[in-house]
Design brief:
Helix content is 48%, strand content 21%. By secondary structure, it is of the alpha/beta class. It has two domains: 126 residues, 3-Layer(aba) Sandwich (Rossmann fold), CATH 3.40.50; 168 residues, 2-Layer Sandwich (Heat Shock Protein 90), CATH 3.30.565. Helix 5 packs antiparallel against helix 6 and helix 7 runs parallel beside helix 8.
Length: 370
């Protein structure tokens, strides 16, 4: 449930404070009050004010000084201030602007005008808060991207640093394969980020053509076989022997499957199985591709957020594993094909990622606009 906006009324006259409260009584705001400048400065942060109605003529610290101090405080400067004044001379108005006031209302205050100005300032405050949240999320996302890009580099460095003496041909081959795999992961991450940006901006063209989805699955599984074997993970397919006709952008759909299989291997424990299943179109005309693992699994409450690039930042902070930037990319691609992607739990443990695609998709090219 959303909390009501907080309006802080600052006036040294009790009657004036009460009159302003009455004018706002039907607006469903939470009203807080302060009777002087120091009280206003103390209250503004404590009550998390969304708008401040500030009287100018107060003893001691007047409204101009209060406003100047509010706007000088990094924690409070974003709160809109509506100055209430009987002063109408040009110098007073200029002083109010210099102090950082966002709006002015002349006393005596009219109810309609007061309510309109407060609503306008609340819209500005709400937009500021939303932008702040978005910028913070982008910063966290940038950190996550850097972390995800560093991981393959660390592993490559580790592979090179651990090879002392004269390695055998088999060891050289193993090292080269490991480095090639991690380099591929790094390339895939950067490509996915660029493609995601293009899709969100409506600048990516899908090239839909008839493809054998079973063959696509076989190719993806084969590319991950070496690293799965090296990690002690059994990688199997089911239903991929017979062709499974569909229509999709082969390159993008391969990236989706590549992300899902790579993610499953990454979090699967040693001596476990990762299964990729192909289910041809059923009576409803839906093709299903499933990737199952025996990893830690994803709590049911967290599953909707794993396909949101900003939500996964918070999930990572909470210790939720098996999430990464490849999942939001996969969701964009699958939905651009008219399908859907989701995750379920697997008993006794693990996850099942399912991609559903329409069997009757038409061939051709289309610009993705999401």
């Amino acid at each position: 449930m959303n909390e009501p906006p907080v309006v802080l009324i600052v006036d040294d006259e009790p009657m004036s404070r009460e009159a302003l409260e009455v004018l706002l009584i039907h607006e469903r705001y939470r009203i807080e009050t302060a009777e002087d400048g120091p009280g206003a400065l103390a209250q503004a942060g404590r009550v998390k004010a969304d708008v401040i109605l500030l009287d100018v003529m107060m003893p001691g610290m007047d409204g101009f000084e209060v406003c100047s101090r509010l706007k000088a405080d990094p924690q409070l400067r974003h709160i809109p201030v509506i100055m209430l004044t009987a002063l109408t001379d040009r110098s007073s108005l200029l002083r109010g602007l210099d102090s950082g006031a966002d709006e002015f209302l002349s006393k005596p205050v009219e109810g309609i005008e007061l309510r309109g100005r407060v609503r306008g300032m609340l819209r500005i405050k709400r937009q500021h808060d939303e932008l702040t949240v978005l910028l913070r999320a982008r910063e966290e996302l940038a950190r996550l991207i850097v972390h995800d890009m560093r991981t393959p580099l660390w592993l490559i460095t580790g592979q090179l640093a651990s090879r002392d003496g004269k390695p055998s041909p088999a060891l050289i081959r193993e090292t080269v394969e490991a480095i090639a795999y991690q380099t591929g992961r790094l390339q895939q991450l950067t490509d996915d980020l660029l493609l995601t940006a293009k899709m969100e901006e409506g600048r990516l063209t899908l090239h839909i053509e008839p493809i054998d989805l079973a063959g696509l699955v076989r190719a993806v599984v084969a590319s991950h076989e070496p690293v799965a074997t090296q990690s002690g993970i059994r990688l199997v397919t089911e239903g991929s022997d017979a062709p499974c006709s569909g229509a999709a952008d082969e390159n993008l759909m391969m990236r989706v499957l590549d992300n899902l299989v790579s993610n499953a291997i990454k979090y699967a424990p040693e001596n476990s199985t990762v299964a990729v299943r192909v289910q041809p179109a059923d009576a409803t005309g839906v093709i299903r591709l499933r990737v199952e693992d025996e990893g830690p699994g994803i709590p049911a409450a967290d599953r909707p957020g794993i396909f949101d690039k900003f939500a996964i930042v918070e999930l990572k902070k909470r210790g939720v594993t098996q999430v990464g930037l490849g999942l939001p990319f996969a969701k964009l691609v699958v939905e651009a094909h008219g399908g859907r992607i989701f995750v379920d739990g697997r008993r006794p443990r693990g996850s099942v990622f399912t991609v559903e695609l329409p069997a009757g998709a038409a061939s051709g090219s289309a610009v993705v606009k999401l």
